[in-house]
Amino acid sequence: MATEPPATTTLTRADQYHAVTASFLGWMLDAFDFFILVFMMDILAHQFGVPKKAIVLTLTATLAFRPVGALVFGLLADRYGRRKPLMGNIIFFSAIELLCGLAPNYTFFLILRALYGIGMGGEWGVGASLALESAPPKARGILSGLLQGGYPIGYLLAAIAARFVLPFWGWRAMFFVGGAPALLAFYIRTKVKESEAWKQHRAPTVGAIVKTVSGHWKLFSYLVLMMALFNCLSHGTQDLYPDFLISALHVPRSTVSYVTMISMVGAIIGGLSFGQLSEKIGRRRAIMLALVLTICVIPLWAFGTTLALLTLGAFLIQVGVQGAWGVIPAHLNELAPDAARGLMPGFSYQIGILFAAPTNTIEFALQEKLGYPWALTAFELTVIVLLGVTVALGSEHRGKAFHRHPLAQAVSDG
Lowest-confidence range among 19-33, 105-119, 194-208, 278-292? Predict the structure, then answer.
């Protein structure tokens, strides 16, 4: 536990609400734009005249380019504040998503999905730092779960769109809907105030930010390893699961949408529950408890003999997976140095996802040799064990103050 003096901030409760809301909506809409693709892989493969593995490659391209966005927007956020980079990021990924609906061929589509990865990679770090710096320390656990809950809610909305938009208006309309998040920039412009913590710890130059991160290279390396495994955990249980149900078990596409919706309700419950639990038992213990739950329900998730059992497995595994993830926004922001909180959490997250980018390709290749159930199981069991060891060997700074104590601030200003 950190022992810093109590944090202080001039933000009102309404200001805190708007900061958290903007960050939550940004991540939710970002996730929606990413996940609509997983429901259309066979449709897009037919549309562009390519094998399905080529569409899987576009998912990999998105994940691989996310570190670029985290670096660019993270540096901007630490140098110039959280609000403007967040607005620019949201407008950027919304415009790219809209263009995806106009893609004339596979090559153009692949390039756009890589560019979309830049936008997706930039949102999480900037949004999480803005929200958590604006929140009271005691509320970080539940807010961490809430923020990360935007991801499964985005997936849930993508499943709803796949059920009610795709059958009637086609695949292009799915991407056109994904352009709507640009409107969120107006909300941020009019309602969200700049982070007080950023004002107190503002770096004088971009070079100073880079120097801060390089001075904590051991911590950064650890965070990259942890986030690589975390991303293998989440993407390995989510991205190809609809295709597993459709291709291997011949579950109707409309039914798969409902299974996904139910699983994402589990993810939301998990994120909120374990995020709040981490305030009581610690960040690392909460993560490891969620991983234990995940490993226990893999048989239901991959080998359920009925649709009801598979659905229950999908629900419970996401309680565990997103339960572990629900702790991450608070955990990473508390571990990061003050002057690089806009960059280090998001950049380590996205560098981690660069290493995790082949997850879908690996699982898809494994299923050709082992079959889908054993491919999913073997991959996730390996990831969970490695992640559990990594988290156990790390540290935490639960309750760390982001704002300077008034006396310290006065001395600094004097």
Answer: 194-208
